[in-house]
Specification:
about 160 residues; 3 helices
Length: about 160
């Protein structure tokens, strides 16, 4: 019975620690969300999986309890921690999915913007080429007109 109690106390402490870590990560995630969702943390996903494993272990301990154990404050506390952990896990997964959606939307928007900018650059390049051709054509006309004017002036002087 002592080893079971020690095991429960150990699990309880691990669950408390994990709940505190998740609460801390939840606050961090809220800050990240406000900052445009950059950097979905792989550590957070790993932490969520670890928390789920801890909860499974705690649920296993709770399912093995006897009627006399129902009054145990440790088991009641583990039960409360499991409920809180479930709530935090659900929130964290929703938040992760939401952040992932934001990243996907931002990525799509970036691709559309890049495509637009590439099209604009191509149009500007074509306009530049057309303008250069027009400038060359006009310069040629000016040279031809200068040549014709010079030719006429020379012809007048000769006559």
């Amino acid at each position: 019975m002592t080893s079971v109690k020690e095991g429960l106390e150990s699990d309880l402490q691990a669950a408390r620690t994990r709940v505190m870590e998740l609460k801390h990560n939840l606050v961090k995630r809220e800050d990240i969300t406000e900052g445009s969702g950059e950097g979905i943390q792989p550590g957070l996903t790993r932490g969520l999986h670890n928390m789920a494993q801890l909860q499974d272990k705690s649920c296993s301990v709770l399912s093995e309890r006897t009627v006399s154990d129902n009054k145990s404050p440790y088991l009641q506390l583990i039960e409360e921690l499991c409920r809180e952990g479930d709530r935090l896990l659900e929130e964290a997964w929703k938040e992760r999915d939401d952040l992932q959606q934001h990243v996907e939307v931002a990525d799509k928007q970036l691709r559309v913007t890049n495509l637009f900018l590439e099209e604009q650059a191509a149009e500007r390049e074509q306009e530049r080429d057309d303008s250069l051709q027009e400038i060359a054509k006009l310069q040629k006309q000016v040279r031809e007109q200068d040549h014709e004017r010079t030719k006429r002036v020379l012809q007048r002087r000769m006559h």
